[in-house]
Amino acid sequence: MIDSHAHLQDREFNKDLDKVLARATEAGVEKIVCIGFDYMSSRQGMDLARRHKSIFATVGIHPHDAKTLDEQTLEKLYDLALKPRVVAIGEIGLDYYRNLSPREQQKKAFIEQIKLAQELEKPVVIHDRDAHQEVLEIIKKEKAGINGGVMHCYSGHTPLALELIKEGFYISFAGPLTFKNAKKSHEVAQKIPLDRILIETDCPYLSPEPFRGKRNEPAQVKLVAQKLAELRGMKFEEIARITSNNARKVFRIDA
Ligand code: NI
Q: How far apart are CA 234 and CA 230, in angstroms?
């Protein structure tokens, strides 16, 4: 399996990252994409990717921190993105649930980072919370999926997912897929084409059942894969193989 979205640089993993990585390997997770959310975490992710063969990194400013994206930071992100094993720009997007940065600044940072990805010919990893319509509008207007992209921890409806797929995106499911009341996500997971599905943990957040509320880690992406296999009526091994191939394709990871 490939965990397509993890925050291994989070301080939650400061003490036992080696054990966390060992458990991931043991669970059958061969690669982990470590996602940046501000400048520091992007640097740290790039650093982890340099030190561990199983880790790849993305660099970007999360909508929560959109207000920190100035010209200078954008230039520093550009330089980071050129480093080896940095596979995408993200996570970027809009969060109209917590509104930790003003909405106008979120939009500006989102668009600027889409343009950065286009300059570098890299895919984007998108965070969308309670902003489906505006995220879709920006994606279409800016052709954000031109080099591929991932809708991380997808929470929208099936028709929107199909529209995003048309725009070049992959749809990624995290721990909430395992929740009993996640009927909408279950439907999406059953109806969209298999060759556009990814799995992720978003660790240390979003632990799947039965670990809800506890620290999440890459090994638990297995529970997301198992749920997906159940929803699609397929074998776990098949789902693991297909979602790994999808992740390799969108992030252009060889072998
Ligand atoms: Ni995340």
A: 6
